[in-house]
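Subject: Predicted fold for Glycosyltransferase family 4 protein, 386 residues

User T.R. writes:
Posting the sequence so we have a shared reference for the thread.
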Amino acid sequence: MRIAHVITRMIVGGAQENTLYNCQDLIRDFGDDVLLITGPSPGREGTLLDRTEHQVPVALAPHLVRNIYPWDDLRGYYEIKKILRDFRPDVVHTHSAKGGMLGRIAATSLRVPAVIHTVHGAPFHPYQSAAARNFFIACERYAAKRCHKMICVADAMTDLMVDAKVAPREKFVTIYSGMEVEPFLESGQWRDEMRQKLGYSDEHVVIGKIARLFHLKGHEYVLAAARRVIDAVPNVRFLWIGDGLLHDKYVEEINAAGLTDYFQLVGLVPPTEIPRYCGAMDILVHASLREGLARALPQALLSGKPAVSFDVDGAREVVVTDETGELIPPKDVDRLADALIRLASDAALRQRLGEEGRRRAAQVFPHRHMTAEIRKTYEQVLADKP
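User M.O. replies:
I've generated the structure tokens; pasting them so everyone works from the same file.
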């Protein structure tokens, strides 16, 4: 099978890791001929293609960029179309808003037999202006008519898209994002080494957050809750993993709040190192305001760490209060602080929730299982073609 994946950029992020695993598995497990089409990945987020021995053929579309620039978008469309015409795929699988829009239009114009799109996270959300939200919904409705099937990384994404009348429910299928689960299951072996490296002693309770330092990722809510948490549990420490354009702003706010001794920002970490950092944590906090299903949540659970998360999108499908962690209403800083204090104060509770989270996540998130399900979707669409 000849399969082209199209994604706007290959920064260090969940959707990008998902896509790269999918490409690698298709080549290794099924012997497929795979091409990854992507735009440039500038900025502080880093790029997966520089950091991994990915062994996936890549074609660069120089004008495929994240922001909307009509002239560049038109050029990006023709770049994608030329690459697809030369590659002659049986399947085009698109990801992200811009890559999804341009890729689907190009694939349809070339009469590609199977066109699939994955919704990693909806491009429309409640924190946009009404005009912007309506524009992105209209774009998604248009693009949805130019593919045969849509994969969502959580049932919540399907509900969101159906409620917005992007496409009928029968056009969607849920396939959870996959990852390399073994390093997370074994992350405890690095705990002592990593905590020593990071300067934590046995008495410290480390609350980790894995996310780009970017808008809507919710770092400000963790920072707002931190003073109460520290006053109640003075041995708490906060470990932030990730980089982005808000880095300097958050550093200034941490310093201004007098919390420098309690926060450590380690910057961008290669994906292969994330299990080691999870091993050093005791709790994961996830305060994003919009997310399909954040990879950090199953990663923490696989590592045996309970998660405290805002109740957005797919979070409730892995974080269950008093079973694997605690769900909090979005932006509720008081409830966030209460949950972190409760877990930071009770090692036995952390262990119980962490063990249950590990048991559940280990059954669902292996990336080769994800790829097998995705390939079944390709086969079904191709089999339904006249």
